[in-house]
Every structure is written in structure tokens, then in C-alpha cells.
Design brief:
The protein has about 260 residues and is of the alpha/beta class. The protein has a single domain, classed as P-loop containing nucleotide triphosphate hydrolases (Rossmann fold, 3-Layer(aba) Sandwich), CATH 3.40.50.300. The protein contains twelve helices and seven strands. The chain has helices at about 5-15, 25-45, 65-75, 95, 105-110, 115-120, 140-145, 145-155, 175-180, 195-210, 225-230, 230-240; strands at about 50-55, 80-85, 120-125, 130, 160-165, 185-190, 215-220. The chain has a seven-stranded mixed β-sheet with strand order 3-4-2-5-1-6-7, with helices on both faces. The longest helix is centred in the first third of the chain and has 17 residues, at about 25-45. The radius of gyration is 17 Å and the shape is globular. It starts with a helix and ends in a 22-residue tail after the last helix. The structure holds adenosine-5'-triphosphate and magnesium ion. The site of adenosine-5'-triphosphate has 19 residues, from helix 3.
Length: about 260
């Protein structure tokens, strides 16, 4: 496949999430993201400088990554300087949704194996920058809670208006809570009619305990029921697993996919 074809495919792939073609039937979804953008802007209006936002949810597969990316795109549409970070160092997907390879990224930087210039990538077509997860490390929570992460966010604050951070689910691992302490606020994605009340309650209690500023909920309504609930998807969902004590194996391969779980 030629490079250009790949880019075209990427756009189509993202269109599945109904965001890149505002003139199509995706209008309602695009508008919903724009409303979310406005609400986030208002809730952070008093915050000076760069707004750093953690996007998380209670459970796996509730639309965190999709929402982070789509919000990044709508923020960039109002000429904000936007950076999206994949801080799901266990099951990274940002690069994949962008149709890119997971090259050196956040984990490599935090581990001291890469510099800032090596990890920031630009998507001219979307008018945003992103940092992929990089190599999957054995100690994500440790890396994310290191002083290097704090330093990174403060460096990035000099160059961006919005930094959107994709994270794993709160009830599964503590990574999002660790990051919640370092940012302006947390956006909680919940799945329409699916996220159990208990899981959400637990998530809110954890965020409160972490003294996070919860900006609000983003209710993700599945737009393509058939695709989302296909057998294939369930298989994928079933295989979902966050890696505890997973061998590091630097050079093991970028963003190990589901098949390797
Ligand atoms: N509103 C939606 N309509 C249809 N499909 C959706 C919607 N939101 C997400 N999906 C699909 O559901 C799957 C999971 O979404 P996503 O990766 O954004 O979830 P996640 O919460 O980041 O998952 P994880 O916990 O694995 O990080 C993806 O295939 C995505 O395309
Ligand atoms: Mg995700």
C-alpha cells in the first residue's frame, strides 16, 4: 500500500468514529464533541496558560482513546495549540487510531531513552501534535508518577494551549489517578446505558481521594451498534488485560497488540 493510500485509510478509519467529516451524517456527533469542548473551556476558564486534561473512565473499552483524539481534533479546529499524549502505557492505541506506528514515545522519554524532540510528532492534517506511548514498560505507574513526568508536563505547558492525556481505566489500574494530580482536570468518559453505577461510583471516589478536579462526564453513545457488539469485538474485549509485571524486553516490539495478550 502506498503511503498516500494509508493516509486516506486513516481518515476513513477515524470517520468510523464520526468526527472528521462534519458535513456528513456525523454532524450530531461532531456537534456533541464541540459542546464538550465549550464546556471544558468554560470549566477551565479561570486556569491560566496551558490546560492539561486527563481523559479516563471506569472500565475498559468505554471510548477514552476515541474521545481523547476527537476532542484533540475539535480543540485544534479553534486554532488552539493541541498535544495529545498516549499515557496508556499498557494498552496504547492513539498511534493505531491515527494509522501510525508506535515509535519512541512517552515511556522512552520517561525512562531516559529519548528526548522531547524525538517523541513529539505532528499531524499536519489534523493540526495537532501527539506523543505515542513508546515501548510498553514493565512499570507504567512508576514512570508516570516520576518527577520526569511532572517536568515533561511543565515543559509542554510552554508550547501548547491544551494537552489531552489518554489513560487506562480507573478501576483497573491507578495510572490515571497518578496523573490526575498533575493536571488541570479530569474528564470521565462513561458509556451510555452500559457503565455500571457501582463502577462509576468507585471511579469518582478514587478521583476524589486523589484530589482530582473532575471537569465532567463525557457520555459515549455507541453509534454503530452492530460493529461495536460484533463477535469479533467481544473476543477482543474478552482478551483485554492490563499487564502487571509484564516483561519489559526493550526492543520487544512497539505497542504489542491484542493477539499477543
Ligand atoms: N461512540 C462509538 N461508536 C462506535 N464505536 C465506538 C464508539 N466509541 C468507541 N468506539 C469503538 O470502541 C472501541 C473501544 O474504544 P476506545 O479504544 O476509544 O476505548 P477505550 O476506553 O480507550 O478502551 P481501552 O480501555 O482499551 O483503552 C474502539 O474500537 C472504538 O472505535
Ligand atoms: Mg484506550
Amino acid at each position: 500500500m502506498k503511503k498516500n493510500d494509508k493516509k486516506k485509510q486513516t481518515v476513513q478509519e477515524l470517520d468510523v468514529n464520526k468526527i472528521l467529516q462534519p458535513d456528513s451524517s456525523s454532524f450530531g456527533t461532531v456537534e456533541a464533541y464541540k459542546v464538550a469542548r465549550t464546556n471544558i473551556m468554560f470549566s477551565l476558564a479561570e486556569e491560566n496558560g496551558c490546560k492539561k486534561i486527563v481523559v479516563t473512565s471506569a472500565l475498559p473499552a468505554e471510548g477514552k482513546t476515541t474521545s481523547t483524539l476527537n476532542l484533540g481534533i475539535v480543540f485544534a479546529q479553534v486554532d488552539a495549540r493541541v498535544l495529545v499524549i498516549d499515557a496508556d502505557l499498557r494498552r496504547p492505541k492513539i498511534h493505531q487510531y491515527l494509522g501510525e506506528k508506535n515509535k519512541e514515545g512517552l515511556a522512552d522519554y520517561l525512562a531516559g531513552f529519548a528526548g522531547l524532540k524525538d517523541i513529539i510528532r505532528t499531524r499536519e492534517d489534523l493540526h495537532l501534535d501527539y506523543i505515542s506511548s513508546g515501548h510498553i514498560p514493565p512499570n507504567p505507574a512508576e514512570l508516570l508518577s516520576s518527577s520526569k513526568m511532572e517536568e515533561l508536563l511543565s515543559k509542554l505547558s510552554e508550547s501548547y494551549d491544551y494537552v489531552l492525556i489518554d489513560t487506562p481505566p480507573v478501576t483497573v489500574v491507578a495510572d490515571a489517578l497518578v496523573l490526575a494530580k498533575l493536571v488541570s482536570g479530569v474528564l470521565v468518559v462513561a458509556k451510555q446505558k452500559q457503565t455500571p453505577h457501582d463502577a462509576l461510583k468507585k471511579t469518582m471516589a478514587s478521583l476524589e481521594f486523589a484530589e482530582a478536579k473532575v471537569l465532567g462526564f463525557l457520555i459515549n453513545e455507541t453509534v454503530q451498534e452492530k460493529r461495536y457488539y460484533s463477535k469479533k469485538y467481544y473476543k477482543y474485549g474478552y482478551k483485554y488485560g492490563y499487564r502487571y509485571g509484564y516483561g519489559y524486553g526493550y526492543g520487544y516490539g512497539y505497542g504489542q497488540e491484542d493477539a499477543k495478550e
